[in-house]
Design a protein that fits this description.
single chain, Rna Polymerase Sigma Factor, Chain: A, Arc Repressor Mutant, subunit A, 2 domains
Length: about 180
């Protein structure tokens, strides 16, 4: 089945189109994901990433150009697998066996408590910004997403999203000035 036929099928019947997409590209996507995750993940991680990749591709299929379906799917699989691998490695860096953990000194308890209070207040202030500003701030500074992706997510132009982000940061600085 050609990519044009696949796109026509997706437009006429999403269910049949998704099945055809899966049949045509499942091995290709699985190979890409497996190659990236084989050293850092489990079989379940590969399967989860595989399912998430197809869900994303089906969701965004209308925006794929007819002559770039395979390239888009391959890049989506690669990006998803790399992000998944980074996430897995990051979560392993922050975990340690309980027997290796040391009891905190009193000075650390106080500092940790202040840090948690600051984080709680910052989150409260970010939520108080309202939408789409809160989403822009969280996506940019917590998930490290690019402004173009964030803009698409919230339905703004990249420039408008950047301006909103700058203004939201100014409001956050003002709201958090007493916490310094």
């Amino acid at each position: 089945m050609t990519d044009r036929e696949l796109q026509a099928l997706m437009k006429s019947s999403l269910n049949d189109g998704a099945k055809a997409l899966y049949q045509q590209y499942a091995q290709y996507v699985y190979a890409i994901i497996f190659r990236i995750l084989r050293d850092c993940g489990t079989r379940e991680d590969v399967e989860d990433c595989f399912a998430e990749t197809f869900a994303e591709v089906i969701q965004r299929f209308d925006s794929i150009r007819e002559d770039h379906v395979k390239a888009y799917i391959g890049q989506a699989a690669r990006n998803r697998a790399l992000n998944y691998c980074r996430s897995l490695k990051s979560s392993r860096l922050h975990t340690m066996p309980l027997e290796d953990a040391q009891e905190p000194a009193e000075a650390h308890v106080e500092t940790d408590t202040e840090g948690r209070l600051l984080q709680t207040e910052l989150l409260r202030q970010v939520q108080a910004l309202g939408e789409p500003d809160a989403t822009i701030i969280v996506q940019k500074y917590y998930f490290n997403r690019k402004m173009a992706d964030i803009a698409e997510m919230v339905g703004l132009t990249p420039h408008a999203a950047q301006v909103r982000c700058s203004r939201a940061l100014k409001r956050l600085r003002t709201a958090m000035k007493d916490w310094r």
